[in-house]
Specification:
This protein is mainly alpha-helical. The chain is built from six helices and no strands.
Length: about 160
Amino acid sequence: QTLDWLPWVSGVRQNYDRATFCRVLQLLVRHETPLPEALTLAGYSTGDRRIVAGVNQLADRIEAGESLNSAINKMKQLPTFLRWIVSVGSQQGSFDVALEQAAGMYHKRAERNAERVRVTLPLVLTIGLGGVSALIYCLVLMLPIIHLYSGLADPLPM
């Protein structure tokens, strides 16, 4: 999370976190862990505060007796696709298959973003650092010359 200010890095982290959430939730559901507990554990496995907050609220609503579909549609902290895949998967009875597909999609998206960062970040840093270095070099070289010429252009005091 310390490098999130760099272009595309936050997208890579977020997609890996979402893929982790889906994979862990899929494993927990497959091993018949109660859904509120599975959601909480899967949320904490990501380390993402937004996902943790969202799934904790979702687990609380489910434990209070609200259905999964109505509770998940109210969760704005979770990504739209993730809410949709959980809702559709639970309705069709193929919850773990839907989570597996979502995890695969998020993982592929993270891999594409990581490749984009791997290719473009060195180029951007090279251009940025090269430009700053060239500017500093020009200023160090030219400022004394400009100062010399302006001194030569001044009339001599009498």
